[in-house]
């Protein structure tokens, strides 16, 4: 989805690497870094600066851990917390349905003695005999809803044996208004949803408590003996490139107050036009269009793109009698953009409304040739299905065309 942006700025973050660099498992990191050995110093700084710029997470006095994607960090957090609790029983892991399909798969795969998947947090009843971990995903995958609070009613007061892990993969201005700097015990972010570089496999956790961060680092040590330093260096370059687009120095941004309002959507280069120019091989046109990508402002570019895509989705589905799509969230003020908007989820979450109830994934595939993931993987019925909206512009154009055929 961000390809047109990075096409236009591909030279912005080139880092030369030499054969005699980064041979060791161990990383040059901040003085001792409290034993968290695997975080490249430059990336730690860049991550903190990016969060200060965007204002989406508190980083002061917090520990930053880097992982091979946030997938590794989710597992590291689950193992660290299960080791941290005082009850001698397997720890339950829950999330409010519909939940991200990889959580149960990652927990169940190990058939672990210390962790088990316990399904929908809304149905989980906590007891003093078992500790639990609730994952709060906000905005949520698959439905994009902002989720603030945990739903397990632990009923045990402040001594409850429950831990929270906040998966904030999509808490970026691209997908949702930033309402406040999140400040939770364990927060997970990933380069894949922030810059679009899922293939670099870089995620990070912001952790309050040192003992937990150290246990997470231990998991990473046993699992992969650290995280590719080459990927960490590349991630640093990508994050710095985004910040350069905002002329940032976070101190400067802070002293200037909120950024100017987002440019009007019609001042933006339509990504579809860029894709069309690319497909047609008209290099001159492509260069001209890419030149116009405004101010090199990455999040403005991404948000405008998502806004345009959602407009297309709602128009394509208006009045159809086969499926419903998630409602937009209530508009909220974004402290980063300085504007008010709804969320623009990364996924379309469809529900088949045919009688008798129909399998939505099968219906989409057989009727329209659209590939979706069935609701069951997310802990709900197969009346629901998830369709990605973060592919290339040309794919989205085909998707919208097919959805419109439902009318
Ligand atoms: N959390 C959520 C909510 C996600 O949607 C994803 C990616 N689909 C991940 C975590 C995994 O991210 P990564 O690529 O960093 O492993």
TrEMBL record:
The keyword Membrane does not apply. InterPro entries: Alliinase_C (IPR006948), Ethylene_sulfur-biosynth (IPR050478), PyrdxlP-dep_Trfase (IPR015424), PyrdxlP-dep_Trfase_major (IPR015421), PyrdxlP-dep_Trfase_small (IPR015422). Coiled coil: none annotated. Residues 1-250, 296-406 form the Alliinase C-terminal domain. Pfam families: Alliinase_C. Keywords: Pyridoxal phosphate. Belongs to the alliinase family. This is Alliinase C-terminal domain-containing protein. It comes from Sphagnum jensenii.
